[in-house]
User: Fold this.
Amino acid sequence: MVDQKESLGIQSIASIHVFVRDLDRSRDHYVEHLDFSEVAVSSPDFEAENRARASVVEAGSVRFVFMEPLGSRGESFHWLERHPEGVGRVVFDVEDVKRAFRLVTERGATAITSIERRAVDGGVASWFDIATALGDTQFRFVQHTGKTPIMPDLVRLDSPRGGQNRFGITHVDHVTTNFLTLQPALAWMDRVMGFEPFWEIEFHTQDVKRGHFGGSGLKSVVMIDPHSGLKFANNEPAQPCFKASQIYLFYQDHRGAGVQHVALGVRDLVSAVEELKSRGASFMPTPDAYYDMLPERLVDLGVNELDEDIDILRDLDILVDGQADHRYLLQIFMKDAATLFKDPQAGPLFIELIQRKGDEGFGHGNFRALFESIERQQQLEGRA
Assistant:
């Protein structure tokens, strides 16, 4: 009898592996603009085994591992044959890797590797990989002693290079993936991962019920790991105008389902965005009408007051959503890598920054505002 209630023992997202064609470009962006520190690089043994060079950047508990192919063999090369740059693997810390392996395989997961064990960073790490329903993105489960391990044969720098996390990035808040159809992924997350439905929304940018046939829409369902609280948001295009949806355009750009954005928690979003903008960081714009309507919308939500000045939020393009009893959240979305680097092969992946002030949800108004902002950007580029 397969036990779908027993937890996999996920503790956190340990790292996110991003396969890139230009490692220096990605590393420099995170170090110079987002104030991450480069903490490790690939060794000759790593490069020979993985046919790739790597750089690891960290801020708070957030870690990105950038991998650039060396030659025409290896995992990252074959991934990039099919996709632009993007997330190839999400790595989870787990309490007991043997239990996690037993549970996911009993529930029908396709294991890519058996459990491997290596000495890493002065401790011991055990891990395995599985295929997922999130396109070509894999999941890795790691149990370790000592420091949180990076990967075998990645060498920690004696002195980290670059930033100092002055923007107060703390952790990965959630990961968002786009699909043509949600049901297979939701069923997989439920049955294999033991995730549960947390939140959902469905809308169209125009009121199609009143005879409008422009714009586009989506359906989104957020799944949560009840043990760790980790959330995965999942989107599909909605009828009518299915192929006009920016979710569909992501699918075309990425050449399949995949991770659209990674949301990073920060301690003080206003000060972080002020400094980021002073450094030339680019964010999704928000129309003035959003802020004109914000006071009335906050009253409807039951958020009687904000700690922040709405005019400052307007100047910074920060979005607000919430619920009763002074619980709300602040969000902002950076432009995607293809736009930032002016290179379609950099891919549609982007970063969200979020500060939660008592609200652990997602916010219907902000979700729609993000969707419409991406759609406006695509229209400016002549793609929508």
